[in-house]
Each structure stands twice: as structure tokens, then as C-alpha cells.
Amino acid sequence: MTTLKIAIQKSGRLSEDSIALLKECGIDLRNVKDRLKTMSDNFPLEVFFLRDDDIPQYVEDAVADIGIVGENVLFEKDKSVEVLEQLGFGKCKLSIAIPRSETFTDIKQFSGKRIATSYPGLLTKYLLEHQVEADIHEISGSVEIAPGIGLADAIADLVSSGSTLFMNGLKEVATILQSQAVLVKNHQLNDEKIALLNKLLFRIRAVKKSKRNKYVLLNAPNSNLDAILKILPGMKSPTILPLATPGWSSIHSVLSEDTFWDIIEQLKAAGAEGILVIPIEKMIL
Ligand code: PRT
Ligand code: ZN
């Protein structure tokens, strides 16, 4: 029987979310601790636990059919794999930062300066695009201390909350890349593997969609129904059910995260009461 092989990060910032995503897709994994690989009981999926840096290579070489990896690592390694889907977690930026006491005017000011980074590939490309010739120092960790110890004038490193930069007296001045975890695939999967992959992708998309949407229930007097229905987008038309109290209805609908608070405010202003917001587990359209 065909099995799809997926590579995910063994331990680090993407591990928990990668395993959680597979779980939310209904894929059970047992013994994920201290293992190199494991097989799901209820989906023909074999999971390899690897260092994130190795995942693009393993997928390019078809040791794994698909993988979950940060775009930062993927684009830095520049391997030939196909990106299928952004997964919405592991979000960060690859940014250039300088000591807080210094002023930033233009990217051109880095000409002839030393920049420390673990992302020499992406930094080189960025500097080339901006026609800046700087001296790139590749270091593998603790990049943020480089300016403080006189190793570099600036750094290019991953930033999420910004607290690491802050604690090291640095400030972000330019963004090279916005990154998040993505699902990648090998270029040449056979038809059986593609069929399994499509099954998995269908589930991943349903999980992602459900996270971006909320199920909303509210009560309103029938006289306000028209106004309320105009505000609600709904997947098709919203559901309207009569309440026990004469002249009142209960309205059910789905709201997207982006417009959620705006719409809730408008609904209240239009006379909606008893608004309940419920998370959606899966959304299949
Ligand atoms: O052992 P392995 O090689 O697998 O793991 P790793 O140590 O190389 O990677 P890991 O687990 O630290 O990160 C895995 C992936 O998570 C990265 O490749 C990114 O895609 C993503 N990610 C998201 C981050 C961050 N956010 C992040 N903030 N990776 C690293 N950081 C580091 C950053 O390098 C800096 O040191 O966190 C610090 C900054 O964080 P803030 O919140 O202080 O700004
Ligand atoms: Zn790594």
C-alpha cells in the first residue's frame, strides 16, 4: 500500500504546530517523542522528524514526499521543491537591525559595512537588489550579540516579538522577508501519492478555513431582521429560526476573523442581542 512520507521539525518552534495541524486533520500519531519516524494508525502517512534546515533537501531528494518548513529556511536553502500552501504558523520576519543609538536613513548606508547573519543567501540577494555592497559575516547562532561585541555593524536575523532585538539594544530598520511555515512537495510524486496528498490538502484547507471563521448566533426582533441580514455576509444565506418569544428570531451565520469586530458592532447597533460566538472545528465548502 502507498504511504505518503512527510518531514517535520523534530524539536523547535515549528514542531508542536506541525503535529497539531496533522492532529486537527484527523491524523493520529503515537510516540512522537524521541523518535526519528513514526507511522499514523489511521492515515497512510509516515512522519520523519528532522532538523528544519535539512527538510528542503530531503524533499528535493524524495526521501520525504512532502515537508513542513519555514519560508526563511526554504528560500535560504534554495532547493527545488514546490510550495503548496502557507500554513499560518511560525510567522516571523527576516530583518536588518542596527544599534538603537544609530540612525537609519537608507539601505545604501550599509555599503562597506559588516552585517552578521545566519541567512547569507537571502541577505546577499536583498543587498544585490538594492545595489549595496556589504561585508557579510555568516554566523550560526546568537547573531544578535554581534554588534555589541564589535563583530558587525548590523545584523540580519529572524524577528517575531522583537524582544530579542530590544534586549540587545538593537532596532529593526528593514525587512528582507516575511515568513511563515509552508507545506512543500517533491516535484515528481506518483499518482497514488498525489491522491493521498490531495486528501491531506483538502483537510488542511478545511482546518485553516475554520480557524479564520467563527460561528455566530444572535437574537433579534423580527422588525430588525432586514437590517441585520444586510450586515451578515454568510456562507449562503444565514439561518433564521423563530424564538419562543413571539416576534423574535434567532439568526445563525459565519463571520470571518478579518471583519469580525466591525460586523459585531454593526449587529449590536442594528438591534441584535444575546450574541454568541462559537469556534468552528472544520469548514468544508
Ligand atoms: O534544531 P533545528 O535546526 O530544527 O531548529 P532551529 O533552532 O534552527 O529553529 P527554531 O526551532 O528556532 O525555529 C524554527 C523556525 O521557526 C524558523 O526557521 C522560523 O521559520 C520560525 N520562527 C518563527 C522563528 C522565530 N519565529 C523566531 N523568533 N525562528 C527563530 N526565532 C528566533 C530568532 O532567531 C531570534 O533569536 O527568536 C529570536 C527572536 O524572537 P523575538 O520574539 O524575540 O523577536
Ligand atoms: Zn535549524
Kindly describe this structure.
There is one protein chain. The protein has 285 residues and is of the alpha/beta class. The chain has three domains: 4-90 and 180-210, Periplasmic binding protein-like II (D-Maltodextrin-Binding Protein, domain 2, 3-Layer(aba) Sandwich), CATH 3.40.190.10; 92-179, Periplasmic binding protein-like II (D-Maltodextrin-Binding Protein, domain 2), CATH 3.40.190; 213-279, Alpha-Beta Plaits. The protein is 27% helix and 32% strand. The chain has eight helices and 15 strands. The chain has helices at 15-24, 55-60, 71-77, 120-129, 163-167, 191-211, 225-231, 260-269; strands spanning 4-9, 37-39, 45-50, 66-70, 82-86, 92-99, 114-117, 135-138, 154-159, 170-179, 181-185, 213-221, 239-242, 248-256, 273-279. The longest helix has 21 residues, at 191-211. The radius of gyration is 24 Å and the shape is flat. It starts with a strand and ends in a 6-residue tail after the last strand. It binds phosphoribosyl ATP (PRT) and zinc ion.
What are the SSEs and their pairings?
Elements: E1 4-9, H1 15-24, E2 37-39, E3 45-50, H2 55-60, E4 66-70, H3 71-77, E5 82-86, E6 92-99, E7 114-117, H4 120-129, E8 135-138, E9 154-159, H5 163-167, E10 170-179, E11 181-185, H6 191-211, E12 213-221, H7 225-231, E13 239-242, E14 248-256, H8 260-269, E15 273-279
Parallel strand pairs: 1-3, 1-4, 7-8, 7-9
Antiparallel strand pairs: 2-3, 4-11, 5-11, 6-9, 6-10, 12-14, 12-15, 13-14
Bound molecules: phosphoribosyl ATP and zinc ion.
The site of phosphoribosyl ATP has 21 residues, from α3, β9 and α5.
